[in-house]
Amino acid sequence: MADRARITIIGAGVGGYPAAIRAARLGAEVTLIEKDALGGTCLNRGCIPAKSLLQSAAVVRTMKEAGTFGVTCKGFDVDFGAVMARKDLVVARLARGVGALLKAKKVNVIRGTASFVDPRTVQIRESGETVRGDAVLIASGSKPERIPIEGIDGPDVLDSSQVLAMSALPKSAVIVGGGVIGVEFAQFLSAMGTEITILERMPGLVPGTDREIAAVLQKQIAAAGVTVVTGAAVTGIARRGPENLVTFSAGDRTGTVSAEKVLLSVGRKPDLSLLGLDRVGVRHESGAIVVDEFMETNVPGIYAAGDVVGGLMLAHLASAQGECAVRNILGRREALNDKAVPSCIYTNPEAASVGLTEEAARERGEVRIGRFPFRANGKAVILDETEGLVKIVSDAAAGEVLGVHIVGPHATDLIAEAVLGIRRRMTAADFSRAIHPHPTLAEAIMEAAMAVSDGAIHMS
Ligand code: FAD
Ligand code: NAD
After folding, report:
1. Do 259 and 294 reside in the same domain of the chain?
2. Whether pTM exceeds 0.85
3. Is the pLDDT of residue 429 over 60?
4. Could you tell me the end-to-end alpha-carbon distance of the chain, in angstroms, rounded to an integer?
5. Residues having CB within 6 Å of any atom of ligand 2
6. Domains of the chain: total
Protein backbone atom coordinates (compact mmCIF):
# COMPACT_ATOMS: atom_id res chain seq x y z
CA MET A 1 0.00 0.00 0.00
CA ALA A 2 1.04 3.61 -0.57
CA ASP A 3 1.90 5.80 2.46
CA ARG A 4 -1.75 6.72 2.78
CA ALA A 5 -4.01 3.80 1.98
CA ARG A 6 -6.56 4.59 -0.74
CA ILE A 7 -9.99 3.07 -0.17
CA THR A 8 -12.84 3.09 -2.68
CA ILE A 9 -16.33 2.68 -1.23
CA ILE A 10 -19.33 1.89 -3.46
CA GLY A 11 -22.57 3.15 -1.95
CA ALA A 12 -23.13 6.00 0.52
CA GLY A 13 -25.80 4.34 2.64
CA VAL A 14 -25.30 3.55 6.33
CA GLY A 15 -23.01 0.69 5.30
CA GLY A 16 -20.82 3.02 3.22
CA TYR A 17 -20.75 6.58 4.56
CA PRO A 18 -19.85 5.84 8.24
CA ALA A 19 -17.14 3.51 6.89
CA ALA A 20 -15.84 6.40 4.79
CA ILE A 21 -15.71 8.67 7.83
CA ARG A 22 -14.05 5.98 9.95
CA ALA A 23 -11.44 5.28 7.26
CA ALA A 24 -10.71 9.00 6.89
CA ARG A 25 -10.38 9.33 10.68
CA LEU A 26 -7.88 6.45 10.58
CA GLY A 27 -5.83 8.33 7.98
CA ALA A 28 -6.94 6.80 4.67
CA GLU A 29 -7.63 8.65 1.44
CA VAL A 30 -11.24 7.78 0.70
CA THR A 31 -13.36 7.92 -2.46
CA LEU A 32 -17.08 7.34 -1.92
CA ILE A 33 -19.23 6.67 -4.99
CA GLU A 34 -23.01 7.07 -4.87
CA LYS A 35 -25.42 6.85 -7.77
CA ASP A 36 -28.36 8.36 -5.93
CA ALA A 37 -28.65 10.27 -2.63
CA LEU A 38 -26.14 10.37 0.24
CA GLY A 39 -27.48 8.34 3.16
CA GLY A 40 -28.92 5.56 0.99
CA THR A 41 -32.12 3.69 1.83
CA CYS A 42 -32.09 4.31 5.57
CA LEU A 43 -31.93 8.08 5.35
CA ASN A 44 -33.89 8.71 2.16
CA ARG A 45 -36.36 5.83 1.74
CA GLY A 46 -36.26 3.81 4.97
CA CYS A 47 -35.68 4.24 8.69
CA ILE A 48 -35.71 8.02 8.92
CA PRO A 49 -38.74 8.95 6.77
CA ALA A 50 -40.73 5.97 8.08
CA LYS A 51 -40.05 6.87 11.71
CA SER A 52 -40.79 10.52 11.05
CA LEU A 53 -44.24 9.49 9.75
CA LEU A 54 -44.77 7.23 12.76
CA GLN A 55 -44.04 10.20 14.99
CA SER A 56 -46.92 12.07 13.31
CA ALA A 57 -49.09 9.00 14.04
CA ALA A 58 -47.99 9.19 17.69
CA VAL A 59 -49.08 12.84 17.85
CA VAL A 60 -52.52 11.85 16.52
CA ARG A 61 -52.77 9.29 19.33
CA THR A 62 -51.71 11.84 21.92
CA MET A 63 -54.43 14.22 20.68
CA LYS A 64 -57.06 11.49 20.86
CA GLU A 65 -56.01 10.41 24.34
CA ALA A 66 -55.39 13.87 25.79
CA GLY A 67 -58.56 13.62 27.90
CA THR A 68 -56.97 10.83 29.97
CA PHE A 69 -54.44 13.37 31.21
CA GLY A 70 -57.02 16.04 31.99
CA VAL A 71 -56.33 18.01 28.85
CA THR A 72 -59.34 18.76 26.69
CA CYS A 73 -58.63 18.91 22.99
CA LYS A 74 -61.51 20.43 21.03
CA GLY A 75 -61.14 18.71 17.68
CA PHE A 76 -58.08 18.54 15.46
CA ASP A 77 -57.25 17.95 11.81
CA VAL A 78 -54.58 15.87 10.13
CA ASP A 79 -53.02 17.55 7.11
CA PHE A 80 -51.50 14.64 5.17
CA GLY A 81 -49.51 16.99 2.93
CA ALA A 82 -47.98 18.67 5.95
CA VAL A 83 -47.17 15.30 7.55
CA MET A 84 -45.30 14.26 4.40
CA ALA A 85 -43.60 17.67 4.10
CA ARG A 86 -42.31 17.44 7.66
CA LYS A 87 -40.89 14.00 6.87
CA ASP A 88 -39.07 15.53 3.88
CA LEU A 89 -37.65 18.28 6.10
CA VAL A 90 -36.32 15.74 8.60
CA VAL A 91 -34.64 13.79 5.78
CA ALA A 92 -33.19 16.93 4.18
CA ARG A 93 -31.76 18.15 7.47
CA LEU A 94 -30.03 14.86 8.21
CA ALA A 95 -28.83 14.51 4.61
CA ARG A 96 -27.20 17.95 4.82
CA GLY A 97 -25.44 16.72 7.97
CA VAL A 98 -24.05 13.66 6.19
CA GLY A 99 -22.75 15.82 3.33
CA ALA A 100 -21.08 18.20 5.78
CA LEU A 101 -19.43 15.37 7.72
CA LEU A 102 -18.00 13.83 4.56
CA LYS A 103 -16.72 17.20 3.43
CA ALA A 104 -15.13 17.91 6.80
CA LYS A 105 -13.29 14.58 6.62
CA LYS A 106 -12.18 15.35 3.04
CA VAL A 107 -13.86 12.27 1.62
CA ASN A 108 -13.87 12.49 -2.18
CA VAL A 109 -17.55 11.98 -3.07
CA ILE A 110 -18.27 11.00 -6.68
CA ARG A 111 -21.85 11.00 -7.99
CA GLY A 112 -22.35 8.10 -10.37
CA THR A 113 -22.68 4.34 -10.78
CA ALA A 114 -19.58 2.26 -10.02
CA SER A 115 -18.74 -1.05 -11.63
CA PHE A 116 -15.60 -3.14 -11.42
CA VAL A 117 -12.93 -3.06 -14.09
CA ASP A 118 -10.46 -5.13 -12.07
CA PRO A 119 -10.16 -5.93 -8.33
CA ARG A 120 -8.61 -2.54 -7.56
CA THR A 121 -10.31 -0.35 -10.17
CA VAL A 122 -13.90 0.76 -10.64
CA GLN A 123 -15.36 2.81 -13.45
CA ILE A 124 -18.07 5.43 -13.17
CA ARG A 125 -20.63 4.59 -15.84
CA GLU A 126 -21.94 8.07 -16.43
CA SER A 127 -18.53 9.79 -16.87
CA GLY A 128 -16.23 6.94 -17.82
CA GLU A 129 -13.83 8.08 -15.06
CA THR A 130 -11.86 5.32 -13.34
CA VAL A 131 -10.95 5.19 -9.66
CA ARG A 132 -8.07 3.05 -8.48
CA GLY A 133 -7.34 2.23 -4.85
CA ASP A 134 -5.66 -0.29 -2.56
CA ALA A 135 -8.98 -1.83 -1.54
CA VAL A 136 -12.68 -1.62 -2.39
CA LEU A 137 -15.63 -1.80 0.01
CA ILE A 138 -18.93 -2.74 -1.62
CA ALA A 139 -21.90 -1.28 0.26
CA SER A 140 -24.47 -1.22 -2.52
CA GLY A 141 -27.40 -2.15 -0.30
CA SER A 142 -30.68 -3.77 -1.25
CA LYS A 143 -33.90 -3.21 -3.15
CA PRO A 144 -37.51 -4.30 -2.57
CA GLU A 145 -38.31 -7.96 -3.29
CA ARG A 146 -41.10 -8.70 -5.79
CA ILE A 147 -43.27 -11.79 -5.97
CA PRO A 148 -44.13 -13.47 -9.27
CA ILE A 149 -47.91 -13.08 -9.19
CA GLU A 150 -50.40 -11.71 -11.68
CA GLY A 151 -51.05 -8.00 -11.36
CA ILE A 152 -47.85 -7.22 -9.44
CA ASP A 153 -46.90 -4.48 -11.94
CA GLY A 154 -50.25 -2.68 -11.67
CA PRO A 155 -50.20 1.11 -11.16
CA ASP A 156 -51.70 0.89 -7.67
CA VAL A 157 -49.18 -1.66 -6.38
CA LEU A 158 -46.59 0.31 -4.42
CA ASP A 159 -43.30 -0.62 -2.78
CA SER A 160 -42.07 1.09 0.41
CA SER A 161 -40.27 3.89 -1.47
CA GLN A 162 -43.45 4.73 -3.39
CA VAL A 163 -45.54 4.73 -0.21
CA LEU A 164 -43.11 7.18 1.38
CA ALA A 165 -43.54 9.46 -1.65
CA MET A 166 -47.38 9.36 -1.81
CA SER A 167 -49.01 12.74 -2.31
CA ALA A 168 -52.52 11.74 -1.21
CA LEU A 169 -53.82 9.48 1.51
CA PRO A 170 -55.63 6.41 0.12
CA LYS A 171 -59.04 5.54 1.58
CA SER A 172 -58.06 1.89 1.84
CA ALA A 173 -54.98 -0.26 1.36
CA VAL A 174 -54.07 -3.93 1.44
CA ILE A 175 -50.59 -4.58 2.80
CA VAL A 176 -49.03 -7.73 1.37
CA GLY A 177 -46.54 -9.04 3.95
CA GLY A 178 -46.87 -8.48 7.71
CA GLY A 179 -43.14 -8.18 8.42
CA VAL A 180 -41.47 -5.10 9.85
CA ILE A 181 -42.28 -2.72 6.98
CA GLY A 182 -45.84 -4.04 6.77
CA VAL A 183 -46.69 -3.44 10.43
CA GLU A 184 -44.98 -0.03 10.62
CA PHE A 185 -46.74 1.23 7.48
CA ALA A 186 -50.04 -0.26 8.65
CA GLN A 187 -49.81 1.65 11.88
CA PHE A 188 -48.94 4.96 10.22
CA LEU A 189 -51.60 4.80 7.50
CA SER A 190 -54.26 3.55 9.88
CA ALA A 191 -53.55 6.45 12.28
CA MET A 192 -53.94 8.84 9.32
CA GLY A 193 -57.36 7.33 8.54
CA THR A 194 -56.73 4.68 5.84
CA GLU A 195 -58.65 1.42 6.20
CA ILE A 196 -55.91 -1.24 6.33
CA THR A 197 -55.86 -5.00 5.81
CA ILE A 198 -52.59 -6.90 6.31
CA LEU A 199 -52.24 -10.24 4.54
CA GLU A 200 -49.39 -12.30 6.00
CA ARG A 201 -48.43 -15.72 4.72
CA MET A 202 -47.06 -17.04 8.03
CA PRO A 203 -49.22 -17.95 11.09
CA GLY A 204 -48.43 -14.65 12.84
CA LEU A 205 -47.20 -11.11 12.13
CA VAL A 206 -43.47 -10.29 12.27
CA PRO A 207 -42.19 -13.87 11.93
CA GLY A 208 -38.76 -14.32 13.51
CA THR A 209 -39.77 -12.24 16.54
CA ASP A 210 -40.21 -14.06 19.87
CA ARG A 211 -43.75 -15.48 19.59
CA GLU A 212 -44.99 -14.10 22.91
CA ILE A 213 -43.82 -10.60 21.97
CA ALA A 214 -45.25 -10.87 18.44
CA ALA A 215 -48.62 -11.99 19.85
CA VAL A 216 -48.90 -8.84 22.02
CA LEU A 217 -47.95 -6.67 19.04
CA GLN A 218 -50.46 -8.36 16.76
CA LYS A 219 -53.25 -7.96 19.33
CA GLN A 220 -52.53 -4.24 19.71
CA ILE A 221 -52.32 -3.66 15.96
CA ALA A 222 -55.70 -5.33 15.55
CA ALA A 223 -57.07 -3.30 18.48
CA ALA A 224 -55.98 -0.12 16.68
CA GLY A 225 -58.38 -1.03 13.87
CA VAL A 226 -56.13 -2.85 11.38
CA THR A 227 -57.60 -6.04 9.91
CA VAL A 228 -55.00 -8.79 10.15
CA VAL A 229 -55.29 -12.00 8.13
CA THR A 230 -52.52 -14.49 8.83
CA GLY A 231 -51.73 -17.76 7.07
CA ALA A 232 -52.74 -15.92 3.88
CA ALA A 233 -50.39 -16.13 0.89
CA VAL A 234 -51.24 -13.54 -1.76
CA THR A 235 -51.63 -15.13 -5.18
CA GLY A 236 -52.88 -12.37 -7.48
CA ILE A 237 -53.99 -8.76 -7.87
CA ALA A 238 -56.62 -7.62 -10.39
CA ARG A 239 -58.11 -4.20 -11.19
CA ARG A 240 -61.88 -3.89 -10.52
CA GLY A 241 -62.88 -0.35 -11.51
CA PRO A 242 -61.18 2.07 -9.12
CA GLU A 243 -60.27 -0.75 -6.73
CA ASN A 244 -57.76 -3.61 -6.70
CA LEU A 245 -58.91 -7.10 -5.84
CA VAL A 246 -56.21 -9.01 -3.96
CA THR A 247 -56.60 -12.79 -3.91
CA PHE A 248 -55.00 -14.98 -1.28
CA SER A 249 -54.96 -18.64 -0.37
CA ALA A 250 -55.21 -19.65 3.26
CA GLY A 251 -54.89 -23.40 3.66
CA ASP A 252 -57.58 -24.98 1.54
CA ARG A 253 -59.64 -21.83 1.13
CA THR A 254 -59.14 -18.71 -0.95
CA GLY A 255 -60.21 -15.18 -0.12
CA THR A 256 -60.24 -11.69 -1.59
CA VAL A 257 -59.88 -8.18 -0.25
CA SER A 258 -60.28 -5.03 -2.30
CA ALA A 259 -58.65 -1.67 -1.75
CA GLU A 260 -57.59 1.53 -3.47
CA LYS A 261 -53.87 0.75 -3.08
CA VAL A 262 -51.78 -2.37 -2.55
CA LEU A 263 -48.54 -2.03 -0.59
CA LEU A 264 -45.95 -4.68 -1.21
CA SER A 265 -43.64 -5.43 1.73
CA VAL A 266 -42.47 -9.00 1.18
CA GLY A 267 -38.79 -8.46 1.99
CA ARG A 268 -35.72 -6.94 0.36
CA LYS A 269 -32.89 -8.47 -1.67
CA PRO A 270 -29.21 -7.46 -2.00
CA ASP A 271 -28.50 -5.15 -4.93
CA LEU A 272 -25.67 -6.60 -7.04
CA SER A 273 -27.15 -5.48 -10.32
CA LEU A 274 -24.75 -2.75 -11.43
CA LEU A 275 -21.45 -3.82 -9.90
CA GLY A 276 -20.01 -6.05 -12.61
CA LEU A 277 -19.01 -8.60 -9.95
CA ASP A 278 -18.40 -11.37 -12.43
CA ARG A 279 -15.51 -9.41 -13.94
CA VAL A 280 -13.60 -9.78 -10.65
CA GLY A 281 -14.94 -13.15 -9.47
CA VAL A 282 -16.52 -12.04 -6.18
CA ARG A 283 -18.50 -14.97 -4.81
CA HIS A 284 -22.20 -14.55 -4.12
CA GLU A 285 -24.71 -17.11 -2.91
CA SER A 286 -28.52 -16.84 -3.03
CA GLY A 287 -28.07 -13.29 -4.30
CA ALA A 288 -25.88 -12.04 -1.42
CA ILE A 289 -22.11 -11.38 -1.39
CA VAL A 290 -20.26 -13.92 0.76
CA VAL A 291 -17.83 -12.43 3.33
CA ASP A 292 -15.74 -13.79 6.20
CA GLU A 293 -15.78 -12.44 9.77
CA PHE A 294 -13.45 -9.61 8.68
CA MET A 295 -16.00 -8.59 5.98
CA GLU A 296 -13.60 -9.64 3.21
CA THR A 297 -14.88 -11.44 0.12
CA ASN A 298 -13.12 -14.35 -1.59
CA VAL A 299 -11.14 -11.76 -3.63
CA PRO A 300 -8.37 -10.30 -1.43
CA GLY A 301 -8.78 -6.55 -1.02
CA ILE A 302 -12.49 -6.53 -1.89
CA TYR A 303 -14.73 -6.20 1.15
CA ALA A 304 -18.51 -5.91 1.50
CA ALA A 305 -20.87 -4.63 4.20
CA GLY A 306 -24.53 -3.93 4.84
CA ASP A 307 -27.64 -5.29 3.13
CA VAL A 308 -25.56 -6.52 0.18
CA VAL A 309 -24.17 -9.36 2.36
CA GLY A 310 -27.69 -10.58 3.22
CA GLY A 311 -28.76 -11.90 6.64
CA LEU A 312 -30.28 -9.32 8.97
CA MET A 313 -30.85 -6.15 6.96
CA LEU A 314 -30.56 -3.46 9.60
CA ALA A 315 -29.01 0.00 9.52
CA HIS A 316 -26.94 -0.33 12.70
CA LEU A 317 -25.56 -3.71 11.61
CA ALA A 318 -24.64 -2.26 8.20
CA SER A 319 -22.68 0.53 9.89
CA ALA A 320 -20.89 -1.87 12.23
CA GLN A 321 -19.95 -4.10 9.28
CA GLY A 322 -18.68 -1.16 7.22
CA GLU A 323 -16.53 0.15 10.03
CA CYS A 324 -15.23 -3.37 10.69
CA ALA A 325 -14.29 -3.71 7.01
CA VAL A 326 -12.26 -0.50 6.87
CA ARG A 327 -10.45 -1.28 10.11
CA ASN A 328 -9.38 -4.58 8.56
CA ILE A 329 -8.41 -2.90 5.28
CA LEU A 330 -6.20 -0.61 7.35
CA GLY A 331 -4.42 -3.53 8.98
CA ARG A 332 -6.27 -3.92 12.30
CA ARG A 333 -7.25 -7.56 12.45
CA GLU A 334 -10.69 -7.27 14.01
CA ALA A 335 -13.50 -9.78 13.51
CA LEU A 336 -17.08 -8.51 13.53
CA ASN A 337 -18.72 -9.10 16.90
CA ASP A 338 -22.36 -9.58 15.98
CA LYS A 339 -23.41 -11.55 19.05
CA ALA A 340 -25.76 -8.80 20.16
CA VAL A 341 -27.59 -7.17 17.24
CA PRO A 342 -30.85 -5.54 18.32
CA SER A 343 -33.98 -5.67 16.15
CA CYS A 344 -36.59 -2.97 16.67
CA ILE A 345 -40.13 -2.36 15.47
CA TYR A 346 -41.40 1.21 15.80
CA THR A 347 -45.11 0.47 16.15
CA ASN A 348 -47.36 1.27 19.10
CA PRO A 349 -46.44 -0.47 21.32
CA GLU A 350 -42.84 -0.71 20.17
CA ALA A 351 -41.05 -4.05 20.12
CA ALA A 352 -37.35 -4.72 20.48
CA SER A 353 -35.22 -7.82 20.90
CA VAL A 354 -31.63 -8.84 21.22
CA GLY A 355 -30.09 -12.30 21.48
CA LEU A 356 -31.91 -15.61 21.33
CA THR A 357 -35.67 -16.04 21.27
CA GLU A 358 -37.07 -18.43 23.89
CA GLU A 359 -37.63 -21.01 21.15
CA ALA A 360 -34.03 -20.81 19.89
CA ALA A 361 -32.55 -20.85 23.42
CA ARG A 362 -34.53 -23.97 24.37
CA GLU A 363 -33.01 -25.79 21.41
CA ARG A 364 -29.56 -25.19 22.94
CA GLY A 365 -30.31 -26.29 26.50
CA GLU A 366 -32.23 -25.53 29.68
CA VAL A 367 -33.37 -21.99 30.15
CA ARG A 368 -34.94 -19.82 32.82
CA ILE A 369 -37.45 -17.15 31.82
CA GLY A 370 -38.22 -13.96 33.72
CA ARG A 371 -41.13 -11.70 32.77
CA PHE A 372 -42.29 -8.35 34.01
CA PRO A 373 -45.45 -6.64 32.72
CA PHE A 374 -45.50 -2.89 32.11
CA ARG A 375 -48.84 -2.65 33.96
CA ALA A 376 -46.82 -3.12 37.18
CA ASN A 377 -44.26 -0.43 36.27
CA GLY A 378 -44.81 3.03 37.77
CA LYS A 379 -43.58 5.03 34.77
CA ALA A 380 -45.75 3.03 32.35
CA VAL A 381 -48.81 3.78 34.50
CA ILE A 382 -47.85 7.49 34.52
CA LEU A 383 -47.59 7.40 30.71
CA ASP A 384 -50.83 5.38 30.48
CA GLU A 385 -48.95 2.89 28.29
CA THR A 386 -49.26 -0.33 30.25
CA GLU A 387 -49.55 -2.92 27.46
CA GLY A 388 -46.63 -5.29 27.05
CA LEU A 389 -43.82 -6.84 29.00
CA VAL A 390 -40.10 -7.43 29.30
CA LYS A 391 -39.05 -11.04 28.90
CA ILE A 392 -35.57 -12.26 29.75
CA VAL A 393 -34.29 -15.63 28.58
CA SER A 394 -31.29 -16.88 30.51
CA ASP A 395 -29.18 -19.96 30.64
CA ALA A 396 -30.47 -22.16 33.51
CA ALA A 397 -27.08 -23.25 34.80
CA ALA A 398 -24.84 -20.17 34.57
CA GLY A 399 -27.56 -17.52 34.59
CA GLU A 400 -26.09 -15.79 31.53
CA VAL A 401 -28.70 -13.68 29.77
CA LEU A 402 -29.19 -15.12 26.27
CA GLY A 403 -32.04 -12.96 25.03
CA VAL A 404 -34.08 -9.93 26.02
CA HIS A 405 -37.44 -9.23 24.36
CA ILE A 406 -39.55 -6.19 25.02
CA VAL A 407 -42.93 -5.09 23.77
CA GLY A 408 -44.16 -1.87 25.29
CA PRO A 409 -43.45 1.86 25.59
CA HIS A 410 -40.04 3.00 24.34
CA ALA A 411 -38.91 -0.61 23.86
CA THR A 412 -36.55 0.48 21.09
CA ASP A 413 -34.63 2.77 23.46
CA LEU A 414 -34.77 0.36 26.42
CA ILE A 415 -33.13 -2.46 24.48
CA ALA A 416 -29.72 -0.69 24.47
CA GLU A 417 -29.11 -1.79 28.07
CA ALA A 418 -29.68 -5.40 27.07
CA VAL A 419 -27.36 -5.07 24.06
CA LEU A 420 -24.52 -4.08 26.35
CA GLY A 421 -25.38 -6.78 28.90
CA ILE A 422 -25.50 -9.58 26.33
CA ARG A 423 -22.34 -8.37 24.61
CA ARG A 424 -20.55 -8.40 27.99
CA ARG A 425 -22.09 -11.83 28.80
CA MET A 426 -23.79 -10.58 31.95
CA THR A 427 -26.01 -12.74 34.13
CA ALA A 428 -29.58 -12.02 35.18
CA ALA A 429 -28.15 -11.24 38.64
CA ASP A 430 -25.90 -8.56 37.09
CA PHE A 431 -28.95 -6.93 35.51
CA SER A 432 -31.01 -7.17 38.68
CA ARG A 433 -28.31 -5.82 41.03
CA ALA A 434 -27.60 -2.79 38.84
CA ILE A 435 -29.39 0.13 40.50
CA HIS A 436 -31.91 1.54 38.02
CA PRO A 437 -33.34 5.06 38.30
CA HIS A 438 -36.92 5.44 39.57
CA PRO A 439 -39.50 5.95 38.19
CA THR A 440 -38.39 4.69 34.75
CA LEU A 441 -39.44 2.12 32.21
CA ALA A 442 -35.97 0.59 32.53
CA GLU A 443 -36.95 -0.73 35.96
CA ALA A 444 -39.06 -3.29 34.09
CA ILE A 445 -35.80 -4.82 32.77
CA MET A 446 -34.38 -4.97 36.29
CA GLU A 447 -37.56 -6.60 37.61
CA ALA A 448 -37.67 -9.14 34.76
CA ALA A 449 -34.07 -10.03 35.65
CA MET A 450 -35.10 -10.40 39.30
CA ALA A 451 -37.92 -12.69 38.15
CA VAL A 452 -35.29 -14.98 36.58
CA SER A 453 -33.51 -15.43 39.89
CA ASP A 454 -35.04 -14.55 43.26
CA GLY A 455 -38.31 -12.95 42.28
CA ALA A 456 -39.51 -9.50 41.26
CA ILE A 457 -40.57 -6.96 43.88
CA HIS A 458 -43.62 -5.45 42.23
CA MET A 459 -45.24 -8.71 41.16
CA SER A 460 -46.78 -11.42 43.31
P1 FAD B 1 -28.43 1.19 1.35
O2 FAD B 1 -28.90 2.10 2.42
O3 FAD B 1 -29.43 0.62 0.43
O4 FAD B 1 -27.34 2.02 0.54
C5 FAD B 1 -26.73 1.52 -0.61
C6 FAD B 1 -26.38 2.69 -1.50
O7 FAD B 1 -25.57 2.22 -2.55
C8 FAD B 1 -27.61 3.33 -2.15
O9 FAD B 1 -27.61 4.72 -1.86
C10 FAD B 1 -27.44 3.06 -3.63
O11 FAD B 1 -27.90 4.11 -4.44
C12 FAD B 1 -25.93 2.89 -3.75
N13 FAD B 1 -25.48 2.06 -4.87
C14 FAD B 1 -25.90 0.80 -5.21
N15 FAD B 1 -25.20 0.33 -6.25
C16 FAD B 1 -24.32 1.31 -6.60
C17 FAD B 1 -23.34 1.41 -7.61
N18 FAD B 1 -23.09 0.41 -8.46
N19 FAD B 1 -22.63 2.58 -7.68
C20 FAD B 1 -22.86 3.61 -6.82
N21 FAD B 1 -23.79 3.54 -5.84
C22 FAD B 1 -24.49 2.41 -5.72
N23 FAD B 1 -33.23 -0.58 9.44
C24 FAD B 1 -33.11 -0.29 10.75
O25 FAD B 1 -32.12 -0.70 11.36
N26 FAD B 1 -34.05 0.44 11.42
C27 FAD B 1 -35.16 0.88 10.79
O28 FAD B 1 -35.99 1.53 11.42
C29 FAD B 1 -35.33 0.60 9.42
N30 FAD B 1 -36.42 1.03 8.77
C31 FAD B 1 -36.54 0.76 7.43
C32 FAD B 1 -37.69 1.20 6.78
C33 FAD B 1 -37.85 0.94 5.43
C34 FAD B 1 -39.10 1.43 4.72
C35 FAD B 1 -36.83 0.25 4.71
C36 FAD B 1 -36.98 -0.01 3.23
C37 FAD B 1 -35.70 -0.20 5.36
C38 FAD B 1 -35.55 0.05 6.73
N39 FAD B 1 -34.43 -0.40 7.43
C40 FAD B 1 -34.32 -0.14 8.77
C41 FAD B 1 -33.36 -1.14 6.76
C42 FAD B 1 -32.18 -0.19 6.45
O43 FAD B 1 -32.67 0.89 5.68
C44 FAD B 1 -31.09 -0.92 5.70
O45 FAD B 1 -30.67 -2.03 6.46
C46 FAD B 1 -29.90 -0.01 5.45
O47 FAD B 1 -30.28 1.09 4.68
C48 FAD B 1 -28.77 -0.77 4.74
O49 FAD B 1 -27.72 0.10 4.45
P50 FAD B 1 -26.72 -0.18 3.23
O51 FAD B 1 -25.73 0.94 3.27
O52 FAD B 1 -26.25 -1.56 3.27
O53 FAD B 1 -27.62 -0.04 1.94
P1 NAD C 1 -39.72 -8.94 6.15
O2 NAD C 1 -38.88 -10.07 5.73
O3 NAD C 1 -39.60 -8.40 7.53
O4 NAD C 1 -41.26 -9.32 5.96
C5 NAD C 1 -41.79 -9.80 4.76
C6 NAD C 1 -43.07 -10.53 5.09
O7 NAD C 1 -43.79 -10.83 3.90
C8 NAD C 1 -42.81 -11.86 5.80
O9 NAD C 1 -43.51 -11.88 7.01
C10 NAD C 1 -43.33 -12.90 4.77
O11 NAD C 1 -43.86 -14.04 5.41
C12 NAD C 1 -44.38 -12.09 4.04
N13 NAD C 1 -44.71 -12.59 2.69
C14 NAD C 1 -43.85 -12.95 1.69
N15 NAD C 1 -44.54 -13.34 0.58
C16 NAD C 1 -45.85 -13.21 0.88
C17 NAD C 1 -47.06 -13.46 0.15
N18 NAD C 1 -47.07 -13.92 -1.10
N19 NAD C 1 -48.25 -13.21 0.77
C20 NAD C 1 -48.29 -12.75 2.05
N21 NAD C 1 -47.17 -12.52 2.78
C22 NAD C 1 -45.97 -12.73 2.21
O23 NAD C 1 -39.47 -7.80 5.05
P24 NAD C 1 -39.98 -6.30 4.99
O25 NAD C 1 -41.00 -6.02 6.02
O26 NAD C 1 -40.31 -6.06 3.56
O27 NAD C 1 -38.67 -5.51 5.36
C28 NAD C 1 -37.50 -5.60 4.52
C29 NAD C 1 -36.24 -5.37 5.32
O30 NAD C 1 -36.19 -4.05 5.83
C31 NAD C 1 -36.14 -6.31 6.50
O32 NAD C 1 -34.92 -6.98 6.39
C33 NAD C 1 -36.14 -5.43 7.71
O34 NAD C 1 -35.19 -5.86 8.64
C35 NAD C 1 -35.80 -4.05 7.19
N36 NAD C 1 -36.60 -3.09 7.95
C37 NAD C 1 -36.31 -2.89 9.26
C38 NAD C 1 -37.09 -2.04 10.01
C39 NAD C 1 -36.75 -1.83 11.45
O40 NAD C 1 -35.68 -2.22 11.86
N41 NAD C 1 -37.64 -1.24 12.23
C42 NAD C 1 -38.17 -1.40 9.47
C43 NAD C 1 -38.47 -1.65 8.13
C44 NAD C 1 -37.67 -2.50 7.38
Report:
1. no
2. yes
3. yes
4. 65
5. 147, 176-182, 184, 199-202, 207, 233-234, 265-268, 313-314, 344-346
6. 3
